[in-house]
């Protein structure tokens, strides 16, 4: 937990930024049952609640009264029956005091407070709930039906929270750096284990063990696959084969739930074939281009376009793509090979604040989301600012079904040498992902040491096993 002054200040800034007045409701998460109520998933607190209240305890609700300038924490103290199972726990009042909240009450008192506020016609601001139980609680508290909830979201609150959470403080960067160090250990563990005959599951289990030993677990379900062409391939059923590449996209949360997110792709047998090296080096050049360009004031959409341009230049040099590359970018030809965006914000969520809505996190009045091929999946388009943390994760994928579709439909056929793609049908995919902090003068790669990334670094590292 950060100092109590940090949370006091964050809540005060939030109250100041929601000028309409009224009440801000920030429900924490409850336990989420896996297969019956008493067998819950590992508890994960809501990130907005964590940001403003910092408490890692289920079933609490934060409330900011903008008009009165008061912060409240609501929850029920544990009964003796609970304590027999959980051991002694701090009271809601003690929890509140630890983050500078002196006004606390029970959940019944929360309901009374909200009923009174509704009767007085006060505005109640809340964010889009992403868990069913929190949605139902909102409905019960506010007298809504579930289908009304989406229409009552407070855009002003969404924008205010994004404006606070999108720039990370030095304290937050320290936490993210810690998550990056866990990520380094995960990825080097995977590289060390990688050899023919090993199961993807062996590696997935080992790296997730690292996150549990050093932090709070994974920041998302680990991708450990020889089928890197399937962007979010969550199967770990493969057995590693010489000649193929392993793609590992995995990250950690530290004990404060700050995240890391890295991807490395390397040959199972530790030695790149010429074909693998060529594709790999194009992706690495695109990743490097983003580092060259990312700085305050630049649109991340422009960084995305510069990176995909590098990819098209590389594929053109290999003869897979032809024609004028400016036109190719314009037409979205790169989307055949990289159907995702260059990156996303990262912080207390691996896709930071995605629950609030990409519309407010990655876009603004200047940057409307595009439907165009190749940009429609870009999560972050808006201008970078000092303190933002971004991922830089270009890739090249040979997705047989997608290539067949383009070929059959003649889509962008003037730019693509479909015949030359035949030898790549079993290639898989390459993605390289690092995390970067936007600084006043540019950016820096997060993590005290970079996971081996060049062909030479990877081959040397793997040869040392
Ligand atoms: N690393 C997984 C993702 O960004 O979606
Ligand atoms: Mn990512």
Describe the protein's topology.
Elements: H1 4-17, E1 23-27, E2 33-36, E3 39-40, H2 47-53, E4 61-65, E5 70-74, H3 80-86, H4 92-98, E6 103-105, H5 107-119, E7 124-125, H6 132-142, H7 146-149, H8 155-165, H9 170-193, H10 200-214, E8 217-218, E9 223-225, E10 245-250, E11 252-253, E12 262-267, H11 274-293, H12 300-317, H13 325-331, H14 358-361, E13 389-392, E14 395-397, H15 400-409, H16 418-421, E15 429-431, E16 434-438, E17 443-445, H17 455-463
Parallel strand pairs: 1-7, 5-6
Antiparallel strand pairs: 1-4, 2-3, 4-5, 8-11, 9-10, 10-12, 13-16, 14-15, 16-17
Helix pairs in contact: 1-8, 9-10, 11-12, 12-13
The structure holds glycine and manganese (II) ion.
Manganese (II) ion binds at residues 261, 344, 391, 393, 433.
Q: Summary?
A:
The chain has 465 residues and is of the alpha+beta class. The chain contains 17 helices and 17 strands.
Low-confidence region ranges: none
Compute the number of strand runs.
17
Proportion of β residues?
5-15%
Q: What is the CA–CA distance across the termini?
A: 38 Å
What shape does the CA trace take?
Answer: globular
How many distinct helices?
17
Main-sheet strand order equals 6-5-4-1-7
Helix content: 25-40%
- Name the average pLDDT: 96
Radius of gyration, in angstroms, nearest whole number:
24 Å
Would you give an account of this structure?
There is one protein chain. With 465 residues, the chain is an alpha+beta fold. The protein is 40% helix and 14% strand. The chain is built from 17 helices and 17 strands. A five-stranded mixed beta sheet has the order 6-5-4-1-7, with helices on both faces. Helix 1 (4-17) crosses helix 8 (155-165) and helix 9 runs antiparallel to helix 10 (200-214). The longest helix has 24 residues, at 170-193. It is globular and about 70 Å long. It starts with a helix and ends with a helix. 44% of the residues are buried. The model has no long low-confidence stretch (mean pLDDT 96). The chain binds glycine and manganese (II) ion. Glycine is lined by residues 220, 249, 261, 344. Pfam families: AMP_N, Peptidase_M24. One of its GO terms (cellular component) is cytosol.
């Amino acid at each position: 937990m950060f100092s109590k002054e940090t949370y006091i200040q964050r809540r005060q800034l939030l109250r100041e930024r929601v000028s309409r007045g009224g009440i801000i409701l920030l429900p924490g998460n409850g336990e989420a049952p896996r297969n019956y109520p008493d067998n819950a998933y590992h508890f994960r607190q809501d990130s907005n609640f964590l940001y403003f209240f910092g408490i890692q305890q289920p079933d609490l609700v934060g409330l900011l009264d903008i008009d009165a300038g008061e912060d409240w924490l609501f929850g029920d103290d544990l009964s003796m029956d609970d304590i027999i199972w959980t051991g002694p726990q701090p009271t809601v009042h003690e929890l509140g005091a630890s983050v500078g909240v002196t006004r606390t009450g029970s959940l019944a008192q929360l309901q009374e407070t909200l009923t009174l506020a509704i009767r007085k016609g006060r505005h109640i601001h809340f964010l889009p709930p992403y868990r069913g139980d929190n949605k139902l609680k909102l409905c019960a508290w506010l007298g809504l039906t579930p289908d009304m909830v989406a229409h009552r979201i407070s855009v002003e609150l969404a924008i205010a929270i994004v404006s606070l959470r999108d720039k990370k403080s030095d304290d937050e960067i320290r936490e993210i750096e810690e998550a990056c160090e866990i990520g380094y250990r995960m990825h080097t563990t995977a590289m060390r284990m990688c050899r023919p005959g090993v199961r993807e599951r062996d590696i997935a289990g080992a790296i997730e063990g690292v996150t549990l030993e050093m932090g709070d677990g994974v920041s998302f379900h680990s991708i450990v696959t020889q089928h890197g062409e399937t962007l979010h391939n969550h199967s770990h059923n493969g057995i590693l084969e010489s000649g193929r590449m392993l793609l590992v996209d995995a990250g950690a949360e530290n004990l404060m739930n700050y995240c890391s997110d890295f991807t490395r792709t390397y040959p199972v047998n530790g030695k790149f074939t010429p074909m693998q090296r060529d594709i790999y080096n194009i992706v690495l050049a695109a990743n490097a281009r983003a580092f060259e360009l990312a700085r305050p004031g630049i649109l991340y959409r422009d960084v995305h376009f510069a990176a995909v341009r590098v990819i098209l230049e590389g594929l053109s040099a290999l003869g897979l793509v032809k024609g004028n590359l400016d036109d190719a970018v314009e037409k979205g030809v790169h989307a055949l090979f990289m159907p995702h965006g260059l990156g996303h914000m990262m912080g207390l969520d691996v896709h930071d604040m995605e629950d609030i809505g990409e519309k407010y996190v990655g876009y603004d009045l200047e940057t409307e989301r595009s439907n165009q091929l190749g940009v429609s999946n870009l999560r972050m388009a808006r201008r970078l600012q000092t303190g933002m943390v971004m991922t830089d994760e270009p890739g090249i994928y040979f997705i047989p079904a997608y290539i067949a579709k383009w070929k059959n439909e003649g889509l962008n056929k003037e730019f693509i040498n479909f015949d030359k793609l035949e030898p790549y049908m079993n290639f898989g995919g390459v993605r390289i992902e690092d995390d970067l902090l936007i600084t006043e003068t540019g950016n820096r790669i997060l993590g005290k040491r970079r996971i081996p990334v060049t062909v030479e670094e990877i081959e040397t590292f793997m040869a040392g096993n």
